[in-house]
Recover the amino acids of this structure.
């Protein structure tokens, strides 16, 4: 974090494809283990002495991992594209990401199937409405930007809640609805086994610098 | 999880105020320790042997905490109100919640100051746009429902991105704009040190069963 501004500066650390594969294979299973720990932390009813022991061991592991660490704001790039290992929705190495694994089906359509456990809860037994917005925002952005390969800024996103979304297995679909000049309109849904629970529409804008590159 | 429907059923575990205080004091520091571990997990560059050791120890702690555990979908209630310890935005015992601590300023106004670290990243150095939507959805809901004390379902929420939101210290404000029959319109913003970065408007609806109770 910059001492002067209080904000994080973004820097890039380029990786070869082989290095990116090695980094992912090494750290993604660690993030998976932390996802299990998050679930256990929310649901545990163990006694004071067990909790104290667990806390001490978690702090020791944190110190271990901090022996060598990237500064905040440093991101990986592979062949000029961002490798979003730490992304809050799709980051394989970010324990708070479910993670959502996005499948691109061509023509700007994309989809994902995932399971949301109790870490994503809002009302009891239901997915937090904002978590649905978070995932839709990401998938609409992937659709509008051709898998994040084109520069597109989110202008606005509107999310309509049809009914509560239950925790458990879900899917998200997103597609390009239409383009008008520098604007791309994308739409998407979240569904459970019985149908759509949440709909979204977003407007994504191609920045002037990207238009000048074309 | 129900075997038949594949969805989690919600159940309530009533606590006295004293029990709620004890549970929060016991488990909130555990969640804090896991938040530090999440940050270290994303940023670590330690070698294979250290990662393998860390992973083994995390799995052992998870087993320890799972010795006694609540089923998924069981929520605490204190004096008839939900105690959202596991909530994805404000849950003190949920490691993926920043947590956002909401201050109610009267007249349906509420606000929060918080710090978002690299776990909430989208574009390099910036907060994921969907994370801004997640936090705004929560705070607008708090404003519209008088601190979640009244039943209000989110109908739609629209989020407008004015510029990128930097990781670091931020604030969120929300307030009731107007009420029309069963609909409450709430608005809100996320700001960094130099001003508003994201705006939102949401429509919240009082369900028929709540109107009949009044």
């Amino acid at each position: 974090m910059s001492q002067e501004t209080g904000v994080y500066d973004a820097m890039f650390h380029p990786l070869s494809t082989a290095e990116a594969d090695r980094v992912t294979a090494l750290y993604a299973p660690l993030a998976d283990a932390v996802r299990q720990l998050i679930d256990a932390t929310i649901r545990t009813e163990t006694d004071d002495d067990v909790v104290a022991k667990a806390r001490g061991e978690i702090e020791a592991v944190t110190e271990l991992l901090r022996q060598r660490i990237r500064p905040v704001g440093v991101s990986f790039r592979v062949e000029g594209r961002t490798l979003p290992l730490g992304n809050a929705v799709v980051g394989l190495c970010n324990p708070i990401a479910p993670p959502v694994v996005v499948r691109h089906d061509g023509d700007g359509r994309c989809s994902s199937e995932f399971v949301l456990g109790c870490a994503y809860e809002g009302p009891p037994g239901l997915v937090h409405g904002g978590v649905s917005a978070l995932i839709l925002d990401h998938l609409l952005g992937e659709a509008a930007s051709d898998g994040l390969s084109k520069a597109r800024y989110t202008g606005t996103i509107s999310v309509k809640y049809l009914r509560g979304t239950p925790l458990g297995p879900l899917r998200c679909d997103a597609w390009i609805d239409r383009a008008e000049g520098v604007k791309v309109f994308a739409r998407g849904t979240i569904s459970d086994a019985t149908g759509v629970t949440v709909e979204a529409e977003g407007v994504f804008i191609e920045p002037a610098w990207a238009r000048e590159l074309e």
User: Anything to note?
Assistant: Strands of chain A lie at 11-15, 74-78, 81-83, 103-106, 109-116, 153-161, 168-180, 183-192, 195-205.
